[in-house]
Q: What sequence folds into this?
């Protein structure tokens, strides 16, 4: 609460306190800072951005339960891949978190689970005595094994699930506080007319988007490596089932929340020893549309924050135009994907959904989404590369530190 009050005070303060006038222009016009106590170094800028980015992408990520008997190196690489996805396209992680949030809420309402049980179900935390995960809704609704699975899940205490988590409210709060503190510093620099580097703008975008991830995954256990076995005793003649190899199409579609249907062989839980990395149970089409909208909103917010640096001091005109074009593209592509997806969903509910016109519209929409995706990824990579390139030449006021005494009331 105190931090929120401080942010409001920072935004509405006019730069004066009592009769003492405080100028908001840069306090140093020279090319160098001669007072180390009132200046910051390039190392301070880079370290602050990297610490915030690490907290926002590594600590805030909550992967699903991995396959059994995985080495530490494999587990590290698995989480590192999710981190890279979170850096290049963080809105995908927002969409993934939103899908599991809505699914966990749905499970808690329909089956009497707690929200923690719902998250644990979504992440493949429950497995049968035969070794396959219990993460499909069809398993809970199965007339034979469904009651046994439900009874087994309800017997597991919330404390037992929370005990498997490698993080708690304190560790998640620290990551959230790091993002809020970095945001406060950036707002203070804007308020005092001090230069913000492109790297800080990009980090601010990561911090803002990852606040959504932290809030959506607040009740999800962190970095669970061993599932909880439930269900009836294992038959003596039943052998463990080898994890089915997934094609690259399966991985690509699962990132966007599209999984194989439960009725075909790809959705048979007995073919898996764990759930995919981006797995979440199927949900109502309306909630799926809300999830896609949340993903688009996060992506557009990410790009909009980059657009806030429209008139920042760039080292060259070429870098300025690349930054602007990439920022606008990042804002526009998620919105276009959402509108095209909404159009395709709308076609499914109207008469000409099975006509040549309806099929043509769906094909063109899908081609547009897939066709511009490489361009979108290129823009994201450009947004990552440009801030690093800009560190070679920074304006003098970049190294002037925030004068925090400005926000202390003077009597």
A:
């Amino acid at each position: 609460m105190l931090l929120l009050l401080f942010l409001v005070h920072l935004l509405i303060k006019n730069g004066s306190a009592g009769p003492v006038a405080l100028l908001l222009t840069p306090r140093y016009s020279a090319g160098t800072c001669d007072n180390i106590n009132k200046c910051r170094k390039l190392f301070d800028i880079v370290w602050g951005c990297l610490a915030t980015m690490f907290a926002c992408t590594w600590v805030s990520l909550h992967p699903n339960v991995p396959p059994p008997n995985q080495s530490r190196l494999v587990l590290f690489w698995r989480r590192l891949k999710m981190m890279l996805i979170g850096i290049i396209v963080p809105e995908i992680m927002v969409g993934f978190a939103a899908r599991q949030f809505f699914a966990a809420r749905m499970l808690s309402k329909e089956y009497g689970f707690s929200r923690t049980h719902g998250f644990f179900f979504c992440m493949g935390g429950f497995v049968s005595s035969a070794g396959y995960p219990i993460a499909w809704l069809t398993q809970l609704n199965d007339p034979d094994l469904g009651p046994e699975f439900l009874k087994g899940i309800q017997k597991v205490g919330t404390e037992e699930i929370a005990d498997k988590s490698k993080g708690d409210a304190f560790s998640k709060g620290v990551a959230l506080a790091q993002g809020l503190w970095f945001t406060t510093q950036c707002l203070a620099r804007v308020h005092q007319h001090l230069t913000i580097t492109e790297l800080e703008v990009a980090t601010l975008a990561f911090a803002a988007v990852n606040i959504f991830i932290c809030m959506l995954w607040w009740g999800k256990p962190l970095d669970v490596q061993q599932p909880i076995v439930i269900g009836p005793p294992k038959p003596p003649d039943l052998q463990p089932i080898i994890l089915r190899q997934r094609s690259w199409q399966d991985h690509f579609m699962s990132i966007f929340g599209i999984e194989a249907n439960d009725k075909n062989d790809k959705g048979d839980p007995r073919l898996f020893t764990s759930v995919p990395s981006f797995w979440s149970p199927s949900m109502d089409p309306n909630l799926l549309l809300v999830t896609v909208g949340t993903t688009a909103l996060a992506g557009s917010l990410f790009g909009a924050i980059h657009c806030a640096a429209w008139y920042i001091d760039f080292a060259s005109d070429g870098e300025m135009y690349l930054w602007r074009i990439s920022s606008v593209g990042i804002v526009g592509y998620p919105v276009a994907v959402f509108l095209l997806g909404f159009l395709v969903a709308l076609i499914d509910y109207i008469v000409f959904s099975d006509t040549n016109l309806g099929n043509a519209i769906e094909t063109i929409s899908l081609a547009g989404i897939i066709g511009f995706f490489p361009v979108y990824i290129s823009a994201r990579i450009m947004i990552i590369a440009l801030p690093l390139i800009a560190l070679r030449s920074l304006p003098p006021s970049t190294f002037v530190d925030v004068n925090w005494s400005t926000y202390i009331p003077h009597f």
Remarks:
- The two ends are 24 Å apart (CA to CA).
- The CA atoms of residues 189 and 402 lie 6 Å apart.
